[in-house]
Design brief:
By secondary structure, the chain is mainly β. Helix content is 11%, strand content 37%. The protein contains seven helices and 38 strands. The strands form eight sheets. Strands 12, 13, 14, 15, 31, 32, 33, 34 and 35 form a nine-stranded antiparallel β-sheet that branches. A five-stranded mixed β-sheet has the order 1-6-7-9-8.
């Protein structure tokens, strides 16, 4: 008996190939069995089969010296046998993962057996030494591809797992901390604060080595939700003290955030800011910067003061003020507006303290996300404390995460989901366990669902649950440090 294409010495290699690669390898051998004459259900036998919680083993008797090929897709396992005689007597299988068996004659002699399944599984097919094929389907598995080098200091692996709940596929990038020529940094979409752009486009535009999607954003306006600091510029304020990832210091860090921003008047009096480039709301004081856009877009009912880059008040208005290219606008409502109106006038001087970077000394970038997943190696999912909705906190979905191992290595992870035959996604607890199994001691969840995406270069390697890549507000890019420095120098 001989196996063609995928077998050497009777050892099955199909379990090492992805379904698309397997199909491509056998595309010149196996034709569509549906195009041939179907055999009645009693004309091929599965003489023996045994199902357990983890495997299904079956024996297919075939004539001696027959050649066979195997094709494992996401929908089914196909075994094509070239022989002169077709054995008789098909026995049906009954299993939660494996479905019905169908058989069809093939042109040129022989038959094709198709075994439907709920999702792809690793398969071993080999001659049993007694004139038959022994087929072992592994329903429970945990496999990791061999690491492949993306760039010096950056490697990629793909993880495939399955249990009774179904399959999961995760893409993992590992970054070495001592690569001084590489930097992980957040990047905003091309057209600014509330813009959207695919991760693939951002990676291509910046010449990234690799990339994943970043923080949450408003599906209505496109604005970032939560803290975002790029090259020391605070672009958006923390939300609900959610966890964030700090980059650019001696070591990446993950922790809860608070704005802590304060306005100090010439008199020494102070007032705490409630937000940066965010909706003003009732009784709130919000700072708008040129990053937000040309105008504040605020409604009537408040007071606004335009301030130059030296902290000098230039003028005031009620709403929708111009934001000077080198200045800022203080926008207040209710009690905040009344308090400031009694103290500010043109020519007054104010001082703004934005101490977020002081929380993590040396950090140049801060990206909000949440919840936290791991704390010193222990699973501690902080979804309730960080006020995430139940569907985010408890649902199974595509996920994006960043982890840090004890040696400071960074792990960028994208888990595909909402595709039952391929990858169902994970809960936050499952994501935390995955990150720990990959070696992370600290980890944070980022935006997920249809936003989850990973690229190597500008090639998308994850499989978005929407079917196409979703434009997002920002992404985390692995870039060469010289390119990052050039970009920072070009910023106003």
């Amino acid at each position: 008996m001989h196996a063609r294409s995928l077998f050497r010495g009777g050892v099955a290699l199909v379990c090492c190939l992805s379904p698309p690669a397997t199909a491509a390898a056998l595309g010149d051998v196996i034709r569509d069995p549906a195009a041939t004459d179907a055999l009645p259900a009693a004309e091929v036998s599965v003489a023996e089969w045994r199902a357990t919680a983890e495997t299904v083993e079956l024996r297919l008797p075939v004539p001696a010296h027959s050649e066979f090929d195997v094709w494992a897709s996401e929908a089914s396992l196909v075994i094509a046998v070239r022989c002169e005689e077709v054995p008789a007597g098909l026995s049906a299988l009954s299993d939660a993962v494996l479905g019905p068996v169908s058989v069809a004659r093939t042109d040129g002699g022989g038959f094709t057996l198709r075994l439907a399944w709920r999702h792809w599984c690793p398969v071993d097919v080999e001659p049993d030494g007694e004139g038959g094929l022994r087929v072992t389907v592994r329903k429970v598995y945990d496999e990791c591809s061999e690491p492949s080098s993306v760039a010096p200091g950056v490697s990629y692996v793909r993880v495939r797992r399955a249990d009774a709940r179904g399959p999961v596929v995760a893409h993992v990038l590992r970054l070495e901390p001592d690569r001084v020529d590489l930097e992980l940094r957040p990047v905003l979409a091309r057209d600014g604060f509330a813009a959207r752009e695919t991760v693939t486009s951002m990676a291509r535009r910046r010449g990234a080595v690799a990339a994943i999607n970043g923080s949450f954003f408003s599906p209505r306006t496109g604005e970032p939700l939560g803290v975002l600091m790029v090259d020391g510029e605070l672009i958006s304020a923390p939300l609900f003290h959610r966890s964030a990832l700090a980059l650019g210091g001696a070591k990446a860090r993950i922790g809860a955030t608070a704005l802590g921003a304060r306005l100090t008047l010439q008199s020494g009096e102070t007032y705490d800011l409630d937000g940066i480039n965010q909706p003003r709301g009732l009784n709130r004081l919000v700072l708008y910067t040129p990053r937000f856009g040309p105008r504040t877009g605020t409604p009537s009912g408040g007071r606004e003061w335009t301030v130059d880059r030296h902290g000098v008040v230039l003028g005031s208005g009620e709403a929708d003020s111009d934001i000077p290219p080198n200045g800022r606008v203080l926008s207040a409502h209710g009690q905040a507006a009344e308090w400031l109106a009694r103290r500010l006038s043109p020519g007054s001087r104010v001082k703004l303290s934005l101490p977020l970077a002081e929380v993590w000394p040396g950090a140049r970038h801060v990206l909000g996300g949440g919840p936290a997943l791991l704390d010193r190696g222990a699973i501690k999912v902080t979804a309730e404390r960080e006020r995430f909705r139940p569907d985010v906190a408890n649902g199974r979905a595509p996920r994006t995460a960043v982890g840090i191992d004890p040696d400071g290595r960074l792990l960028l992870v994208a888990v595909d989901g909402r595709q039952p035959r391929y990858s169902q996604g994970v809960t936050l607890e499952e994501l935390a366990r995955l990150m720990r199994s990959l070696g992370a001691s600290e980890a944070i969840n980022l935006d997920g669902g249809g936003s989850t995406a990973m690229t190597i270069g500008d090639v998308l390697i994850s499989r978005p649950s929407d079917g196409t890549e979703r434009p997002v507000n920002n992404a985390l890019l692995v870039v060469r440090r010289a390119d990052a420095a050039d970009e920072a120098a070009r910023r106003p």
